[in-house]
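Q: I'm a student working through a structural biology exercise. My instructor gave each of us a protein and asked us to get a predicted structure, then write a short paragraph describing it. Mine is DNA-directed RNA polymerase III subunit RPC9. I'm not confident about reading structure output yet, so if you can add a plain explanation after the C-alpha cells, that would really help. Here is the sequence I was given:
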Amino acid sequence: MEVLNKQLTLLTNYEVLRLVNESKKQEDKKAKNDRSKHLSTILYEVTSKYLKTTPAQEQNPEVIEKLIKAVAPYKLTAAETMQLINLRPTTAAEVQSSAILNRRIFQLEQRVRTATSAR
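A: Happy to help. First, here is the predicted structure for DNA-directed RNA polymerase III subunit RPC9. I'll explain a few features afterward.
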C-alpha cells in the first residue's frame, strides 16, 4: 500500500466521530453483498464502544473553538490542547477532582519556588 496524499494533522475525538459516522452512513447505503464486514465491525466498535462514551458525543465546533481560545494564553502545544478537548471533565466528580488536583499542583509549585529561592 502506498500513501498518495499525505496530510499530517491532529484530529479531535469529535472530528473522528464525525468522520466515522459519515463512513458508516456510506457503508449502510451499500448493498449487503458490497459491504466490508471488517470495516463495518470497526465502524461499529469505534462509534458504539469508544467514542460515544467520550465527551466527543456532546461536542460541536463552537465549543471546541471556545475552548481553544480560552486556553490560548497558556501557550499549550497542539497535543496538550487536543488532550483537553478529548478528555475534558464531564461529571461533577471529575470537575471536583480536577479542582483538587489543580490546588495540589499549585501548592507544590509554591513549595518548589520557596525552596529554590531560599538557596
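A: Here are two points you could use in your paragraph. The chain is about 65% helix and 0% strand. The chain has a mean pLDDT of 83. It's a good idea to check both against the output above yourself.
Q: Great, thank you!
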